[in-house]
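Support reply, case 0932

Customer input (verbatim):
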Amino acid sequence: MKNNIMQKISGLCLELDKVAFEIYSSFSKLTKNTELKKFWAIMAAEEQLHLKFWQSLHKAGEKNRLPDIFDEPELAYTELKKIIFNTKELIKQSKKSLDISSTFFIAYKLEFNMLHPAFEMTYYLMRDFVEVKMPEDSYQKHIDEFLDMFTKYTSDKPELEMLGKTLQRLWKENRALALQTSQDSLTEILNRRAFFDLAQNMASLAQRNQFNTGLLMIDIDKFKDINDQYGHQKGDMVLKSVAQNIKKSIRSSDLVGRYGGEEFIVFLSEIKEGSLFQAAEKIRVNIEASCPNGIRVTVSIGAAENVFPAINISELEPFIKKADANLYEAKATGRNKVVY
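Our regenerated output:
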């Protein structure tokens, strides 16, 4: 199971969304309430959108290109299996003629199961590994729509109203946990720990498949001067702008993280030999052209390329040192350039 555990987990997440789509489609067909018929159809359509994401992720997993993101992946797999069993029981119930309260109670149990941390973590940490993109607030919007209608139709039943508040709190807590463990709060890219956790596993995939890989160390030129001239608030805005420009300039299968301060790190998996300079230059040019709030920003980039030998995090260090040495040369010889 170890070599394809993420493919199996992504398959279970796909199966879970298929269950949700089937249940909401059933509700839309069976209900006689015009408003609810439309609402359940919208919920089903949103699950159909989510399905495209999970199908894309599962396809990437079939090619063995997904890094492990769980400390105990087998446990996450087992728990998701239990959830699938529980939610499939709900399909049978959804096919029956039900009153409105019973319908919402089934939907509540479905949404509650879909807020399991394993499902949430897989979505938030794997979003950048697929070509199919969903709006940033897709699941947030979905939950909000459900809770609004849930409250409207169960307000006369205090016990169900309490369940709605519980679901909302669980959603916020799980989302916050997923973001805290993986995302740098300012730049909204991977934090250092999450980057290295994912890079370690991607390095193992590269090593098994003998992929040519690249590493970039990126530093904002004279960032102290930006802070001194424009203030720290504008400096923070520049950091976020640079981070997002890097993210937009690389492929969905690559990683970008905040290494520390005004320095960023990028891991590029499965690249063509000799293409790393062009990838780094694209980032440099895009950042220089961005001028956030009229502030001219440039970066220096050190690049290193190799058939990656690492299978544990300590062996990343030589690769980083090589890119870091090239970064130092870029800064020492004029800045705003790529040294490869």
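We compared this against your earlier run and they match. Two observations from our side: The chain has two domains: 2-182, 192-339. Residues 310-314 have pLDDT under 50 and may be disordered. Please reopen the case if you see a mismatch on your end.
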